[in-house]
Amino acid sequence: MNSSTAKLAVMLVALSLATAAHAQDFPKHPISMIVPFAAGGTSDVIARAVAEEMGKALGQPVVIENVAGAGGSTALARAARAEADGYTIAIGNAGTSAATYTIYPKLPFTPDSFAPIAMVAKTFGIVALRKDFPARNLQEFIAYAKNNPGKINLGHAGIGSSNFLICKSFVQAAGIDVTLVGYRGAAPALTDAIGGQIDGVCDAAASVSQAIDDKLVRGLVVGSTVRLATLPDLPTSVEAGLPEFEAQGWNGLFAPKGTPAAIIEKLNVAARTAVESEPVKKRFHDLSTVAPDANEHAPDVLGKLVTRDVEKYRKLLEEKK
């Protein structure tokens, strides 16, 4: 072995030991969890519930940082540039982590820019209307939309968000022409629907179910095969006569590419501990959100989900442009 090779070997061993020591000490200070939308929306509500319990498991707080803009791509660009040390992670969904690559083809990041940590939630898409909208059920709504093309306004959390995908899936399944209005998050869209500034919203049950329950907006349909326990009167798409409308989504945690495997493992264990905790189980129940199954916690499960949905939403978004 020549001197250069020997020096390189020593450096690699030293680097390996330093990385192992860093992972063993992790975390030494608070972790930032970037949420790609304004406070109050689905991703934000889920993130806050999970972050609190993750912080308990890790012994350091997980601090929420809302970074809205460009359907979540502003936040994920920031996450992709962060140090790969485990102290900056992001929560994503089918919109921000899969569909965005079709919507914004010149992004400064790719799916390979992130290391999956864990899926933390399964969500259900709902279409809800302002409470005084004239249509009383899905078939009446579709008939009204076909008689008034382009005149109905449905709000969502921005192009590229999972709520935008709910809208696109719904509109294509129903074969109607409506105007989709993007906001910087689900909460401001819902606020305008409640106030009557728009006709309705495409949203996840996690952020719209309380408003439906409080009769601030009127639920039209849930894109699920089964009714939600928290909204037992809301018909499924099959029951309402539109089985083609399917809107079951997910939320997952990601770290920048290159984050040491040992740190990913610690974050994964903390995420799994969080979603299995009683406070998160109760919060998810109240939000009509479901925790991943026991066999869906591994990072590679989330990675495969992203790969699948990149292709799934490419087809959806390129169809009938």
Would you write up a description of this structure?
By secondary structure, the chain is an alpha/beta fold. It has 11 helices and 9 strands. It has 2 domains: 163 residues, D-Maltodextrin-Binding Protein, domain 2, CATH 3.40.190.150; 99 residues, Periplasmic binding protein-like II (D-Maltodextrin-Binding Protein, domain 2), CATH 3.40.190. α2 packs across α9, α2 packs antiparallel against α10 and α4 crosses α6. The termini are far apart. The model has no long low-confidence stretch (mean pLDDT 92).
Question: What can be said about this structure in brief?
Answer:
The protein has 321 residues and is α/β, with parallel strands linked by helices. It is built from 11 helices and 9 strands. The protein has 2 domains: 29-122 and 250-318, Bordetella uptake gene, domain 1 (D-Maltodextrin-Binding Protein, domain 2, 3-Layer(aba) Sandwich), CATH 3.40.190.150; 124-222, 3-Layer(aba) Sandwich (D-Maltodextrin-Binding Protein, domain 2), CATH 3.40.190.10.
CATH architectural name of the largest domain: 3-Layer(aba) Sandwich
Which consecutive residue ranges, at least 5 long each, have pLDDT under 50?
Answer: none
Strand content: 15-25%
Overall pLDDT: 92
- Biggest sheet character: 9 strands, mixed
The dominant shape is globular
Structural class: alpha/beta
Write a concise keyword list for the protein shown above.
321 residues, alpha/beta, D-Maltodextrin-Binding Protein, domain 2, 2 domains, nine-stranded mixed β-sheet, 11 helices, globular
